Amino acid sequence: MRSSLILCTATRFLLPIILMFSFFILLRGHNEPGGGFIGGLVAASAFALYAISHGVTYAQQLLKVNPINLIASGLIIALSSGLFAVFNGSNFMQGYWSEFKFPVIGKIGTPLIFDIGVYFLVLGIALLIIFSLAEEEEEIQ
Amino acid sequence: MNLLFAVMIGVLYGAGFYLILRRSFVKVLIGLILLAHGANLLILTVGRLTKGNPVFVNSGTDATAFADPLPQALILTAIVIGFGIQAFALVLFKRAYKTAKTDDLDEMRNTDLSS
Amino acid sequence: MNLIVLPVILPLLFAVIMLFAWKYISLQRILNLVGSLILLIVSVLLFTTVLSDGVQSLHLGNWKAPFGIVFAADILSSVMVLISSIIAFTTALYSFSTIDNERESFGYYPLLNTLIMGINGAFLTGDVFNLYVWFEVMLISSFVLLVLGGTRNQLEGGIKYFTLNLISSAFFLAAVGLLYGLTGTLNMADLSEKIKLAGDNGLITVISIFFLISFGIKSAVFPLYFWLPSSYHTPPSPVSAIFAGLLTKVGVYSLIRMFTLVFTVNSEFLTNIILIVAVFTMVTGVFGAASQNEIRKILSFHIISQIGYMIMGLGLYSVLGIAGAVFYLIHHIIVKTNLFFIGGLIQKLQGTYELKKLGGLYKVYPIIGLLFLIPALSLAGIPPLSGFWAKFLIVKAGLELQEILVVVISLFVSLLTLFSMTKIWNEVFWKPAPKDNPEISFKHFTLSKKIMIFSPIVFLAILTVIIGFSVEEVFQIANQSANELLNPINYINKVLGRF
């Protein structure tokens, strides 16, 4: 698969920036527009861009992990944020917040863990869809 | 404003149902997507439209003037679910097209004929 | 009471673990069996708790009732969860020897678990929009399970199933939105009170009809059932068994829940519609079955006609009628799944579902004949098996309300059911084996595989007989749940956190 040199070079610089931006959106979440879902989609768009410019196999190599594992870890992280309350003897999904305010991020709590789970889940699912559709296209060509 | 939304919902539903009744399954899929959008817009409209007041309310301010966050949350959930379903539908219809070599629903009656 | 969410969390947890073990299929099999066994234990616990302590509820994240999402378990929900766990467990056993390696390696077991998660979630939630979400979870898993393997028939059936169920979801969503616009709440218990304040409003009738259409498509009632007979016979046998047992029944459950708890304002109008729909569902379903010559197609049409009985119980709208519907749900899920299991077993033996090519099974394996007769006669309503009592209750409720015509039709339909069952019996078991397909043997079956395929069938058959002989206890449960459904004050108070 061939694509333009400009796109390839630009992608190399854009990829880390988009990933950082997606992480920013994730952390911004709870009280302002943003969160795990959008963050995950933005991160997936970074890899999708790489897949378009360099080809799917290179994007998969760049990702290193199988998207299915991303989905599974996202689900387990999100689930653990809910189960945290169960082990504390409260209702499932009860939110807990740290007393201490971290610099930049602010208070950390179980909703953030849930959002991180969603982030990985959405990233995994979006990439799984994109990769499998794109792979089929490449087979045809 | 409400009238505009009502007409828009009507158009979406009408177009959706029209497309669902077509024989080509790509059109059926587009019809289903339009139908889902119509339903989403309906939720937004019946949840009372408010102009220029986002749902983030600081404590102490009067909350009645602000938009109701729940319809927006419902729509967001519905959109996410719809995203998953439409992605699946694309793959399903593509596979069906490859296997059956046709996109005409009238030719897909193998499973309905009694043997 | 975190116990209530466990039937939802456990399948999810096991599905996630299976995703991590994507490449290790034998590990996934074991995990599936262990997971469904734990699920069964949990749902027995939940059931006994609800029986002894009354309605249980859980406010997720400790958000107060009408605002947060509530999980609630009354007797009906916990019975349904129990039965769905039993079916999940038996399907886990049955899958060992009936599902092929290719499907297993494309995520069959995780999907089975997310399907169960969606079904249990729909049974347990106390929030209308949350019900929509669980329906979607269930539907997406079932879409993939249905077309997994990708044969032409599966894809064709899948498209029909997919399209019609998506239309039903669109109706559901619109109805939820309208309901929220009208009452400002989505909690079912809260809705039950708020909707009375809205008065006898035409819009409420429209919304209730929207729900009727949406759940009607999902539970395959009369003019809306066409997706069912064109898709249920296409996937491999364990998949169609679990679909036949559980999916449509989630629709029936939702109908019972919504039309007893929320829409009681103008029930005269609604119950009439439901009764008419029920009659047509019964009759068209059974006639459809009579015209078919393939085991799973016959059984699929019988699902429709049986749904008619359950809807009829709801339409009668008396304590006895609803108790009958609940009893029928319990009986039907077990029996129908078992019949599909046996259908799959027959296909494994002779390589086809076509009645013409089958035959002579009684001579070689009379035990299979016996195992078929138990659920088949139960389905047709022969005493003392479970189906007789289920039909008896509904007919009695009909007679009490003097709906003579409906009762007569339902008895007639029951006769035709017996005809279909004897047709399968004659063609598969008594008729001599046809010349072009004489071979009847467990060719590729080791002893352990044989045990795996027979044990769920025997287990469900024993359950059918047990229900038949301990009618008193099961009827008590059904009656109690009907009382709860028609006087939902306890449920409402518990969910809204008032004591």
Topology summary:
The complex is a heterotrimer of chains A (141), B (115) and C (499).
Chain A: H1 5-28, H2 36-54, H3 56-63, H4 67-87, E1 97-102, E2 106-109, H5 110-140
Antiparallel strand pairs in A: 1-2
Helix pairs in contact in A: 1-2, 2-3, 2-5, 4-5
Chain B: H1 2-20, H2 25-46, H3 69-100
Helix pairs in contact in B: 1-2, 2-3
Chain C: H1 6-20, H2 25-53, E1 56-59, E2 70-73, H3 75-98, H4 101-105, H5 108-124, H6 128-147, H7 152-183, H8 188-197, H9 202-219, H10 227-231, H11 237-262, H12 267-290, H13 295-316, H14 319-350, H15 361-364, H16 366-380, H17 386-400, H18 404-430, H19 447-469, H20 471-486, H21 489-495
Antiparallel strand pairs in C: 1-2
Features:
heterotrimer, A: 141 residues, mainly alpha, two-stranded antiparallel ribbon, 5 helices, elongated, C: 499 residues, 21 helices, 2% strand
Task: Please describe what this structure looks like.
The complex is a heterotrimer of chains A (141), B (115) and C (499). With 141 residues, chain A is mainly α. Chain A has one domain (5-140). In chain A, strands 1-2 form a two-stranded antiparallel ribbon. The mean pLDDT of chain A is 87. In chain A, α2 (36-54) packs across α3. Chain A is 73% helix and 7% strand. With 115 residues, chain B is mainly α. Chain B has a single domain, classed as Helix Hairpins. Helix content of chain B is 63%, strand content 0%. In chain B, α2 (25-46) packs antiparallel against α3 (69-100). The longest helix of chain B is centred in the last third of the chain and has 32 residues, at 69-100. Chain B starts with a helix and ends in a 15-residue tail after the last helix. The model of chain B has no long low-confidence stretch (mean pLDDT 85). In chain C, α2 runs antiparallel to α3 and α11 packs antiparallel against α14 (319-350). In chain C, strands 1-2 form a two-stranded antiparallel sheet. Chain C has 21 helices and 2 strands. With 499 residues, chain C is mostly helical. Chain B binds chain C through residues 16, 20, 25, 28, 32, 35-36, 38-40, 42-43, 45-48, 70-71, 74, 77-78, 81, 84-85, 88-89, 92-93, 95-96, 99-100, 105, 108-112, 114-115, and chain C through 129, 132-133, 136, 139-140, 143-144, 147, 150-153, 155-160, 162-163, 166-167, 169-170, 173-174, 176-178, 180-182, 186, 229-231, 233-234, 291-294, 297, 354.
